[in-house]
Structures are given as structure tokens and as C-alpha cells.
Amino acid sequence: MQRPVKIIIGGLVVIAVLGAAPFMIRPYVEKLGTQSLELLARDGGFCETDACEEGIDYALSFLETNYGLSQDEIKWCMGVDEIAHREWHFANGLKDLATDFMYRRCGAPILDLPEDSSDIDNAPLAE
User: Fold this and answer.
1) pLDDT tens per residue across all 127 residues of the chain
2) Could you please report the per-residue DSSP string of 36-100?
3) What is the distance, to the nearest Å, from the Cα of residue 46 to the centroid of all Cα atoms in its chain?
4) Distance CA 52, CA 97 (A)
């Protein structure tokens, strides 16, 4: 093959991979979010069976009601939170940039501060 043809094919492969990346990442992030919800339900004592489906449903409905997000968005945000709190051996700066971008679907961060705290006025907001 001629060199320009190889370059065009290589460019198309790169574009295809970059275009498919969001569709490959979403199931992984939502799986992490579901695992986090299960852990939350088990730690909160909401599970009545070993499968803990009712506990996960309760946690989802609670978060959905209190934060105004859909169930898919809650799973996404919990998964992104799981990724953000992991320490990698390398590329933590890149991970921070990626998770900051991924958090945009979740809205403004909510700080767990006491109501009488004056630090709430300095809370960062999502753009």
C-alpha cells in the first residue's frame, strides 16, 4: 500500500476508537456505580436478602428524591466518584482532569458540612 493510504486508514482507525470510547466507558462507570450503591445499601443496613436488590432500590430512590438525578445519572456519578477516589500508580493528574469532566453530568458538588459552618460560602460550584 502507498504511504498516504496507510495514513488515511490509520487516521480513520484513531477516529473510530475515539468515537467509540464513550460507549465503552459508560458501562464500566455505571457498573462501578452499582457496586458502590450495593456497598452503600449494605453499610446502611437496607438489605434484607443476599442479593440486596431492595437495598439498592431504596438507596437509588433516596438519592433520586434528594438530589434530583435520574437512576442512570446516580449510577454514573457514584461510578465517577469511585474512580476519582482511587489512587493510581501513574497519571493521577490525567485521572483528575477526566473525572472533573465526567462530574459535569452530576451538577454542583454538595459539601458535607455542618449547617452552621461558614465554609459553605466558599464551596466550589460546577460550571
Assistant:
1) 788 888 999 999 999 888 887 778 899 999 999 999 999 999 999 999 998 999 999 999 998 888 888 899 999 999 999 999 988 888 888 888 888 888 888 875 555 545 555 554 554 444 4
2) HHHHHHHHHT--SSSS-HHHHHHHHHHHHHHH---HHHHHHHHHHHHHHTPPPSS-HHHHHHHHH
3) 22
4) 34
pTM, rounded to two decimals:
0.69
Handedness of CA 66, 105, 73, 92 (dihedral sign): negative
**Placement of cell 454538595 in the chain:** 110
DSSP state letters, 52-66: -HHHHHHHHHHHHHH
C-alpha 56/C-alpha 23 separation (Å) is 24
